[in-house]
Each structure stands twice: as C-alpha cells, then as structure tokens.
Amino acid sequence: MTEYTNMAEEVNTITKDDVKHWLSASTAIVTFEKADGSMREMTATLQPEYLPETKEQNTNITRKDNPEVVTVWDIENAGWRSFRINRIKSLLVE
User: Which residue ranges form the domains of the chain, and what is each CATH number?
Assistant: First the structure.
C-alpha cells in the first residue's frame, strides 16, 4: 500500500492524471473535504472489473473536462462520485 497524505500542501505535484492512473490500476481509500466543509472517506477505483456496464447512448452532449475534478467509482456505495484534487487530504492506494 502507498499512502499520500497532506495533499493540500502538495496540490501542485498531484494531477488528475496521477489519480486516474493510480485508480485505473488499483483501489484507494480517498479522504477529502466536501464542498460543504465536511470530510468524506470513500473506497474508489477506475478498474474496469468494478465499473458498471455502460449502455450505448446516442447523444450529442459533450461535457467540458475540468482538470481539477476527478470522477471515480465509489465501491461501497456503488455509484459515480467526484471530488476536487485540491480537497484531497489523503489517498491510500491499496
């Protein structure tokens, strides 16, 4: 396991691509501050075996990518969640 703590102090060194890379290969316990100021801990991943099957949709909706926000699969709550990189307090990669 690798633990990254005090992320707020190291926000310039951690990128969205870093987090996506780690979560694509493993699961992690992410602790972050929510928009309302409360703390949240979740077991997150982007590993394909945990993700729900996607249905093909024929839509023309294109979302603009926000480099400050990571969308992940919350294993415990079985749903998509997102958080801002600069609000991460710790990330324990399993």
Answer: 2-50+68-93 (2.30.30)
